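Posted in: Structural Biology > Protein-Ligand Complexes

Title: Requesting predicted complex, S-adenosylmethionine in pocket

I'd be grateful if someone could produce the 3D structure tokens for the following input. Sequence and ligand are given below.
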Amino acid sequence: MDIALITTEDGSHSLRNIALNETYHSIHGAIQESQHVFIQAGLQYLLRKNPKDINILEIGFGTGLNALLTTIYQKTVPIHYTAFEPYPIEASVYDRLNYPSELGANKKLFLALHEANWNNQIEINQGFALHKIHARYQETILPSLTFDLVYFDAFAPEKQPELWELPVLNKIYQAMKPDAVLVTYCAKGQFKRNLKSIGFNVESLPGPPGKFQMTRAIKI
Ligand SMILES: C[S@@+](CC[C@H](N)C(=O)[O-])C[C@H]1O[C@@H](n2cnc3c(N)ncnc32)[C@H](O)[C@@H]1O
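-- Reply #1 --
Done. Output follows.
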């Protein structure tokens, strides 16, 4: 897989998939976008409900930025983090990503997220268990009524339409608990109509800098 390291407008790195001509994050700021969409609108929103533990599903582990941010922003409630990634990035790439220094985070922790074995649940630190699945999520059977929070961070619908269509979204819906939350940077009309037709309560929220809106969907 041909990948280029880029620096986004907030100084944090991201990657560009050359074949798809698609970046892993907003060029206006990778950390800024992930904090806004996944942490503030997702994790912190859920934490206000005082859960005993949180089961997270991420579609697209990629750079590991969302997993790292989750370990930083949540230290009291146990987290079980399941992430799908069919195309893991190589050590020569993740080793150069500047997220630990930009976030003042422990680089060993960031490397541990990447070095954790695939297809096994690994205790990264106390209260944070990581289960990375080396597969395309749309081809995998997901457990029912399991996840409290979904970080839906696939490449854009124009680039990977098969990941945003009704049957796969319905599969995610079935895997979520009642009242569970799905967050994504995408705010496309067709995507939101698909979510509504499945049974989600769909909210359009202000997007991160450079993007008008994002989406939060609650399973009802
Ligand atoms: C927009 S990037 C975001 C990655 C990650 N969340 C991050 O912050 O770096 C999308 C990710 O989805 C992965 N991906 C591509 N096809 C996929 C599939 N069928 N199932 C799950 N992930 C997929 C890509 O390889 C890429 O890592």
